[in-house]
């Protein structure tokens, strides 16, 4: 048991050392990125030790080492919760980060600030680890804000580009709206349960948890890009591809779902919140899948795919299966990071061409990337016995056999088939057919820094689902029996999606380009959501407040109510009833003479 | 009767005459109003001090307050006239408009 604690803390220490070392001379050498990558790989290996101990013994652990302060009756400590979720997520996240760092050694090779890039990636990883292992909400909030800040710094990496700055600001703003929900939940827990420690919250088991769970749901909507707060995720593709692979596919965006999974003892008693999560997740997954159908930027298609999978995770939490959602988080990290890395390989090889309409015929020129892309897409759609199958198929089976909202189920199934459609679209446009890019580009993927990480994640995408689901301790009973037609649903809709997409692509290959129909416009412009919400809403708000400030406050209340109304009233009435002619001196003199005559008369009578 | 009462009565009468008989400036009428107030104040103060009627000492102070208010009113009317015409000649006030 001693090895559990010490190797856990050793892992975190190994991650912190390169950030500390950035104050010294090693930060200026060009061996620093390789040093960071090596440290992350060592951290991955040391983090396997506590995971294996946990799997073997099945015992959770809480490390609580530093008592920070006590505010009246509430005690704030530095405590790490090493339970099922954090112990399994840590090796997965570290493995994916290791691969991405090795990939970005190739991708960002010509960047002069590559040391800073690696430092930012490492700081992001540290804050994500803080978030995942937090035992109290305060530490979780520190990690939460940390990942938000590092996301901002990394999306705006190429800050000379106005679009990148806008996208980074958009990410911060949308995350902030979610943070309000998290703060509300923290405040509720502080006031009603007098604690921010997860153990005490679950022990006290409060009855009316609508308000804090709604706050946590809002936080998850912001961080995990559910419908309503989703536009920042496709805009975040302005950042470099390693950033998209790490943050916006496997680690940061699952933080919101992770928060909801952490609080499963509270959500399993609250039917209202479960229904809300179900409907929100279903709408998200379908809407973003529709938007992914007509995008032309390969990174945006993968971003919408991430958003759709996040909606699926939310649906899973909504049917009260947090452990399945967590399994999907872990398996999704593998193939989604690999999909991003493959798109990065394609983009770099075509000298920064991101439009799939200008790719094609890469099947022969980039064989390894092609293999990885196809394997990743198959894993994403849930092909039997690849990685995605072990989580996604279980989710579809659970939602088919649970007593739930049939509308949400229908949306999820449609989105599953659309997953196959847009994956086919990527493969068809990027890999098959005749090349549509200029011919003078040298395409070479034969670099070990590129091949090895994709190879690792490829092996992960194929085998990790099997390995993870066979080795973890079973926390819930999976659905064992169901009718054949329900079991075949996921496979059937996926196959349907593949076949329809392939047929459509082949049939319309050589047709003349028609101007887009209304539904195409809806899908390409992301459902008109950014257009209305980003332009119309602020304009209406500013116009209304300007009218209030100038017309209502200034003109009416300050000027017209008392001063001007009194003066106009007096003038009008006096002019109406007066018969004077303004001969003031005459009036005064007559007054004086009357007064003098009266005095004289009184004196002599 | 002490001589001071006659003095103040004379001052009051002279100011009254100045208030009611003036040539062109409205300002001179306001100044004479202040003069009247001053003479009344001194009369009241001397009476109270002479007869040791300390309880009535508040009357001169209240009169001062009211005189200040009426002076302010008169000055604001003067300012209104001056805004329209530039000078406060009283022969301008024949139009009954603002």
UniProtKB/TrEMBL annotation, chain A:
GO BP annotations listed: ATP synthesis coupled electron transport; electron transport coupled proton transport
A Pfam family this chain is assigned to: NADH5_C
Keywords: Electron transport, Membrane, Mitochondrion, Mitochondrion inner membrane, NAD, Respiratory chain, Translocase, Transmembrane, Transmembrane helix, Transport, Ubiquinone
Locations listed in the record: Mitochondrion inner membrane
Gene Ontology MF terms: NADH dehydrogenase (ubiquinone) activity; NADH dehydrogenase activity
Source domain of life: Eukaryota
Residue ranges occupied by any NADH dehydrogenase subunit 5 C-terminal domain in the UniProt entry: 422-600
Membrane topology: Multi-pass membrane protein
PANTHER family: NADH-UBIQUINONE OXIDOREDUCTASE CHAIN 5
Physiological role: Core subunit of the mitochondrial membrane respiratory chain NADH dehydrogenase (Complex I) which catalyzes electron transfer from NADH through the respiratory chain, using ubiquinone as an electron acceptor. Essential for the catalytic activity and assembly of complex I.
NCBIfam families: NDH_I_L
Name of this protein: NADH-ubiquinone oxidoreductase chain 5
Organism name: Cynopterus sphinx (Indian short-nosed fruit bat)
TrEMBL record, chain B:
Topology in membrane: Multi-pass membrane protein
GO cellular component: mitochondrial inner membrane; respiratory chain complex I
GO MF annotation terms: NADH dehydrogenase (ubiquinone) activity; oxidoreductase activity, acting on NAD(P)H
UniProt keywords, alphabetically: Electron transport, Membrane, Mitochondrion, Mitochondrion inner membrane, NAD, Respiratory chain, Translocase, Transmembrane, Transmembrane helix, Transport, Ubiquinone
InterPro entries, per the entry: NADH_UbQ_OxRdtase_chain4L/K, NUOK/Mnh_C1-like
Coiled-coil residue windows: none
Known EC number: 7.1.1.2
Keyword NAD: yes
Transmembrane segments: 38-55, 62-81
Assembly information from the UniProt record: Core subunit of respiratory chain NADH dehydrogenase (Complex I) which is composed of 45 different subunits.
Entry similarity comment: Belongs to the complex I subunit 4L family.
Known role: Core subunit of the mitochondrial membrane respiratory chain NADH dehydrogenase (Complex I) which catalyzes electron transfer from NADH through the respiratory chain, using ubiquinone as an electron acceptor. Part of the enzyme membrane arm which is embedded in the lipid bilayer and involved in proton translocation.
This protein's name: NADH-ubiquinone oxidoreductase chain 4L
